[in-house]
Amino acid sequence: MPLYEFRCPEGTTFEASFPMGQAPAELACAQCGEPAGRRISAPRLSVAGSAAFGLIDSTLRSAHEPEVVTGLPGRSRRPATRYTTHPLHQKLPRD
Ligand SMILES: [Zn+2]
């Protein structure tokens, strides 16, 4: 559903989502209760669902939901695979 922007007489701007073509011309402001008129804003339909939109979304989300690191990078718990059977290679230091 598209997002519509409203602005009340006191200057509070807020957005609300309505089905296409069903947005009211006025909506009660959540702050003061006064009827807030619908504003004309730039549609963001061209970026919705695109890779750019996903990047913007994840960037905004990282501000309050950062990804949590739970371990050292590049280390797996899987035991090392044996690549060689040469006896001298067994004496080489392991990481
Ligand atoms: Zn208001």
Automatic annotation (TrEMBL):
It comes from the Bacteria. This is FmdB family zinc ribbon protein. Residues 1-41 form the Putative regulatory protein FmdB zinc ribbon domain. InterPro entries: Regulatory_FmdB_Zinc_ribbon. Residues 67-95 are annotated as: Disordered.
